[in-house]
Amino acid sequence: MPIQICSTCGTSYPDTPVPPSHCRICRDERQFVPPGGEVWTTPEKLASGHVNAWRLLENGLFEIHTHPQFAIGQRALLLRTAQGNVLWDCIALLDDATEQLIRVLGGLRAIAISHPHYYTCMQDWARSFNCPVHLHAADSEWIMRPDPALCRWEGETLEIAPGMTLLRLGGHFAGGTVLHWADGAEGRGAILSGDIVQVAADLSRVSFLWSYPNMMPLSAHTVRRIAETLGCREFDRIYGAFPGRQVTSGGVHAVEQSAARYVELLSSQQP
Ligand SMILES: [Zn+2]
Ligand SMILES: [Zn+2]
Fold this sequence. Notes:
It is a single chain. The chain is an alpha+beta fold. The protein has six helices and 20 strands. The mean pLDDT is 97. Bound molecules: zinc ion (2 copies). One zinc ion binds at residues 115, 117, 172, 195, 212.
């Protein structure tokens, strides 16, 4: 029997003869159920109508994105280092071409994921490359398909490879995580942010929300804390969750200014 994938969020569920009655991720207010109810697919059906496209974003960093867009539409990022490759965030489609290309590039040392919206088919990626998946333990309740490869980490930071450190920021999800890549941006440092720090349409700004589809904000306290945590790190670039969404320089300034303006708007008394 095939595993079942929710077409709205891309989350995979255990193999069953019929799809689940509902998707827990989509029933949460940080996602949504489409007007006609949940729609389900399988890995085979997904692969028959979609392909993954690759783009080199900078030396050692590939974007992998599914076309036509599927579910939330995020990209996965493949980081290449002398110590092995790391996949940041995940997508539902692991097609034959992607699997072979990653093998040629040396396989995967680890997978790390920012938050449950991008868990997708992480279990299948982990099995294909025989590597662990690092998830923050605070989001364990959102794991819909348990697997021995899933490693739950606790605390505020975890170095998963030399110069690659997971930072728990919370906010959008309690375990919301970004990856600090010390060698990124030609050694000036980069943050891979998922939608824990969302790169905005104005590529010099970022934002922070509790629910993106339902446009619900975070508290001023939380946004201030996220900005302060990131303020302790050196980075110039921020790679967001979606193709084209990156702050190419001035990343620290973008977080500081965007967070300050966000807090100002939340606390202003304007009519
Ligand atoms: Zn769903
Ligand atoms: Zn999300």
